[in-house]
Amino acid sequence: MRFRHVLKALIFTLIVLPSIVLAEEKPNFVIVLADDVSWSSFGCVDAGLFTRTPNIDRLAAQGLRFENFSCAGAQCSPTRHELYTGLLPPTSGVFGNGYKPREDYKNIVDYLGNLGYDVGLTGKTHFTTKTAFKKIPGFTVGANEQAPTWELSGVKQFIQTSQAANTPFCLVVASVHAHHPWTIGDASNFPLNKIIVPPHMVDGPVTRQALATHAAEVEDLDNQVGATMQLLDEMNLNDNTVLIFLSEQGTAMPNGKWSIYDYGTKALCLVRWPGKIKPAVTDAVAMYCDIVPTLVDIAGGTTPPVDGRSLYPVLKGLTSDHREHAYLVHQGSGYSQRAIRNKEFKLIWTPKQANDYYLAVMMAPKSGKTFAKAWREWQEKAETDPDARAKIDRVVKHPEFELYNIKKDPWELDNLAGNPEYTQKVGEMHAQLQAEMERLDDTFSTVDPKDAKRAKKEKAKPADGTDTTEKPEPSELTDKQKKREARKKARQKDKEEQAKRKKK
Questions:
Q1: Could you give the strand order of the β-sheet that contains 335-341, starting from the edge strand earlier in sequence?
Q2: Closest Cα partner for 273 from 316, 307, 309, 231?
Q3: Helices (H) and strands (E) in the chain — how many of each?
Q4: b vs e for 166-175, b when ≥16 Cβ sit within 10 Å of the residue's Cβ?
Q5: DSSP tag of 116
Q6: φ, ψ dihedrals at 327, nearest 5°
Q7: Torsion-angle region of 441 (φ positive above 0: left; ψ -120 to 50: alpha; else: beta)
Q8: Angle of helix 205-234 relative to helix 54-62, nearest 10 degrees?
């Protein structure tokens, strides 16, 4: 009898215990992903702006903050595809919202799932993939909703289920804050006279109000980060959890989202792992595509065949020389740009500008979008103010080359490309950019037919007050909107069938 007990204990030790040890050795991953928030919107960055982000600032003090972290393309879909697959737009084909990936690429669910992880997501997806996340309830999915909500009970349940199975987990908390229309939060916390307008913007009451309402929603995002940190603390998961915060891409204001400037492509990246990562600031050049190989590396896997590379040596403080430069794209109808950005300089190449979907559609004259109202204020002021005119021209008139010293000029106001002292620098970086384009098999010929069609329709439309601003992607639609779209398709199909019967 005693022998049987001893034998059972031995079997448990040999079979069960190793799996428990393995789960303990592999850290958990939690990624909190914001939505359309520029790098400058947080107190820890100290961009000289008026912000209220105490929880995110506390996280920055506890971990590693990246000073030179970028997304390749400043739109939701390409940024998320880059994050989850480790692929840059020229590789995946996802240059903008509405683009379909060329193939069913492997993603974070595949890579970490093969290493024994449960991989789940709550909130916004905006990502086309063959292998889906485990869906976790709690956070609003549709970014365009007027009253998005969030709570963490679903997240807690997901974690508890993984723990019960002795399985490490990777959790993505994908907030819809602060995606337009900026209806959440208390804007009175941000008096207009205290708002500091970024120097690349035209100052005015409409612009100040836009920045205040955006800041209020960022404040609620900060509350989400704080609640997530508190949950990990209450569940005693801090020590064995890598917590990452990412701001996605720039704010939906001119020169932000949809642009190749730093206000659009530069992001806040914070990584906390108590006892493993020392609190610090690094100037290492890194990108969203580096996240997947980093997590795989930390989890003990083999680096996948992606465009990104593991940041683990940077996280451990062994080096700050990660990438020579970040590779950036803007792809629109008749308006394409490529850029590279190192620790000191950024070169933007715009070989030809025919028309601009960004201005024709996103800033439509009759649009009720907050950023479009701000743009109209800029235009009105530019009629009499030379400084405002210069800032307007910066958005609508792109020379072939733009060179910025981003260390001295973080808002990219002083184009050095026309300065003879920087002729050699422009030539060097242009050669580097062309070499990178050749390596990635990237050209300026990839034009989204949807964008071209929209731009063509926009020219043909009368000024009847129709709002032609960006339509939500299917992944952002509410259940009610999905049902409405399904009914529309059914009615259209009925009409087509009736027409066929009449012809017969």
A1: 326-332, 335-341, 345-349, 401-405
A2: 316
A3: 16, 12
A4: ebbbbbbbbb
A5: T
A6: -110, 125
A7: left
A8: 50
The token duo for 90 is 């020229």
Report pLDDT digits (tens) over 178-226: 999 999 999 999 999 999 999 999 999 999 999 999 999 999 999 999 9
Give the pairing of strands 401-405 and 345-349: antiparallel
CA 393 – CA 322 distance, rounded (Å): 35
The residue type of 44 is: C
Asked if CATH classification 3.40.50.11270 holds for the domain at 28-321, the reply, yes or no, is no
Predicted local distance difference test score (pLDDT) of residue 72: 96
For 340-362, how does the pLDDT look when each residue is reduced to its tens digit (9 = 90+)? 999 999 999 998 766 665 666 66
Which tokens hold the place of 70?
Answer: 């970028």
CB proximity list for 280: less than 8 A, separation 6 or greater: 64, 65, 317
Map tokens 């006279």 to a residue: 193
* Every domain of the chain and the residues it spans: 28-321, 330-460, 474-503
pTM: 0.84
480 in the Ramachandran plot: left (φ > 0), alpha (ψ -120 to 50) or beta?
alpha
